[in-house]
What we know:
The chain is α/β, with parallel strands linked by helices. It has 2 domains: about 5-175 and about 300-355, Rossmann fold (3-Layer(aba) Sandwich); about 185-295, Transcription Regulator spoIIAA (2-Layer Sandwich). About 30% of the residues lie in helices and about 30% in strands.
Amino acid sequence: MRIIGVAGTAKNTGKTTTISALLMGLSRTPSIVVGLTSIGYDGEEIDNITGLLKPRLFLKKGNVVATAASCLRVGNAELEILEQTNIMTPLGRISIAKVKRDGLVVVAGPNKSQDLKIVIEIMIEKAGCDIVLVDGALNRIVPMTVTEGLILATGAARNPNVIELAEETRLICSILDRPEVGERYKKIVKDLELKTIAVINNDNTVKVIRYPALIHDDIAEVLNEHITDKACGIYIPAAVSQPVLNKLVEILDNRLQGFTIILSDPIKLLISGQPSKIMDMIKKIESLKGRIEVLKKVPVLAVTINPFYPCYSFEKGLYEPAYVDEKFLKEEMKKAISLPVFDVIKDGSESLIKILGF
């Protein structure tokens, strides 16, 4: 895999530490050109909420970074600009730069899927990157649809209750593991406009509805008028709202048998609501013999864990470092999910890098 997203479930769950471990491990093989960009802003020295120190992003000579203009000279790495893009962000135009001397960087990349796709293409095709790491988070995960796989970084900062954290992680991974639709549906919807919802009939005819997303209360009723007994599926290319999707499922009810709800990717589903409620909806659809599938999978490849969490001391009036039991956290996470689980501080990055095929 060449495009890997690292998504933190919350601040301080170890995302930057995971990326740093990957950068360090990959850089041990000089022939591998590693690229780094971010969805939004990352690389600050101090957490602006807790006031605690944050790990910095350190790039080696030969690495490539895509970042905004105002961040190019903030770190101490020496950078050579290879190409300036036309992609603008609040922190300036995105540039592709090569590291000429090792050092720290501040990364602020594109925050839109299409812009991220363009940046990654330049990094691979023009800058010669063998792998591109994309720094992201659950609250800005939508552009991660352009990646080929995700590493999920979670930990006690998300929830210091280890049992609850492991269960939530299981649900997130299950939602992101929605199956891809078959070739029949892919052929039917591949040429449709992004701003349309499509009702697919048994004879492969399509009823197009001029709604890009499933977020307004009235759309479920509109769809009900067009979903006849001949319908076998519906394609929703853009955002979905869990309450409206629930309403659609209620309207379909006994027509769900053999019916397929198709989303462009599982991230659209993940951001629609709480993981537990999303999974309840999926189970209801499946109990009625229906399916909810995606055009493109974004698989979770591994989960990294961080026992640290910032704990507020009312007595001192500030945040202090605190930790859950690392062994217990790892054991419970491994019980909950079938994916590889790593504490990169203790385990290192070698096994994680092998999962990526390097």
